[in-house]
């Protein structure tokens, strides 16, 4: 299970042609995402080959998230405020990187803006959802992220990643709960093999 697909926050640059005046939908989505303090949901991940995995997704903005996969998959991803840690359950190995150098950086920022280094390339509606495709300003070949929202009220339901090779990964959320209490210990990296807790001071 590849980290860049699992983290599910890949962004790329959009072509230069972008409307100067932001659409009202863009402003609404930006306000909604900035208003997310905590979120917990069940997720189903569908890989490019159709393989599905599932688990729990937890978010505590700014800086923290966790993907915990259902057994028998032992993989998990946790962002602890400074680093994103990925544990490969099959290889029994951990890798990590500063959040600022990962695909999660956009979503975990304290002040999220859909402008500047992040651009909106497309906004449309279909199947009862609002679709918004995001691109990263400095890498025109990296891929795209499409967020899908329910409306009335606005709520994140799905997202789709297309990477630089055209591989598609879909994440669908269900049973979403927002504004709940999530303890910080959920967002520390705990090594399943060494039984050690890694905490950033």
Structure summary:
The chain has 201 residues and is mainly beta. The protein has helices at 3-6, 24-34, 105-108, and strands at 38-46, 52-60, 64-69, 76-80, 83-88, 93-98, 118-126, 129-136, 143-150, 155-163, 168-178, 189-191, 196-198.
Q: How do the strands line up in the largest sheet?
A: 6-5-4-3-2-1-11-10-9-8-7
SSE sequence, one letter per element: HHEEEEEEHEEEEEEE
**Low-pLDDT residue intervals, each spanning 5 or more residues:** 1-19
Fraction in beta strands: over 45%
Indicate the CATH class: Mainly Beta
What name goes with the CATH superfamily? Answer: Lipoprotein localisation LolA/LolB/LppX
Estimated structural class: mainly beta
Q: What's the domain count? A: 1
Q: Note the gap between the termini.
A: 30 Å
Can you summarize the main beta sheet?
11 strands, antiparallel
Helix amount, in percent? under 10%
Overall geometry = globular
* Strand elements, count: 13
Q: What's the gyration radius in Å?
A: 16 Å
Structure, described:
- The protein is mainly β and 201 residues long.
- It has helices spanning 3-6, 24-34, 105-108, and strands spanning 38-46, 52-60, 64-69, 76-80, 83-88, 93-98, 118-126, 129-136, 143-150, 155-163, 168-178, 189-191, 196-198.
- Strand 8 and strand 9 (143-150) form a beta hairpin.
- Mean pLDDT is 84; it is low at 1-19.
Task: Describe how the helices and strands are arranged.
Blueprint: H1 3-6, H2 24-34, E1 38-46, E2 52-60, E3 64-69, E4 76-80, E5 83-88, E6 93-98, H3 105-108, E7 118-126, E8 129-136, E9 143-150, E10 155-163, E11 168-178, E12 189-191, E13 196-198
């Amino acid at each position: 299970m590849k980290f860049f697909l699992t983290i599910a926050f890949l962004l790329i640059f959009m072509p230069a042609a972008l409307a100067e005046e932001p659409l009202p939908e863009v402003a609404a989505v930006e306000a909604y995402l900035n208003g997310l303090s905590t979120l917990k949901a069940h997720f189903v991940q569908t890989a490019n080959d159709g393989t599905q995995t599932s688990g729990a997704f937890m978010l505590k903005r700014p800086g923290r998230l966790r993907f915990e996969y259902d057994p028998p998959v032992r993989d998990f991803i946790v962002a602890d405020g400074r680093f994103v840690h990925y544990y490969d359950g099959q290889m029994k190995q951990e890798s990590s990187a500063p959040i600022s150098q990962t695909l999660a950086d956009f979503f975990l920022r304290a002040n999220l803006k859909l402008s500047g280094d992040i651009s909106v390339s497309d906004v449309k509606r279909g199947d009862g959802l609002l679709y918004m495709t995001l691109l990263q300003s400095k890498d025109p070949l990296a891929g795209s992220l499409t967020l899908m929202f329910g409306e009335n009220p606005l709520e994140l339901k799905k997202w789709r990643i297309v990477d630089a090779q055209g591989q598609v990964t879909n994440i669908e959320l269900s049973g979403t709960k927002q504004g709940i209490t999530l303890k910080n210990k959920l967002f520390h990296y705990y090594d399943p093999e060494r039984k050690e807790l890694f905490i950033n001071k």
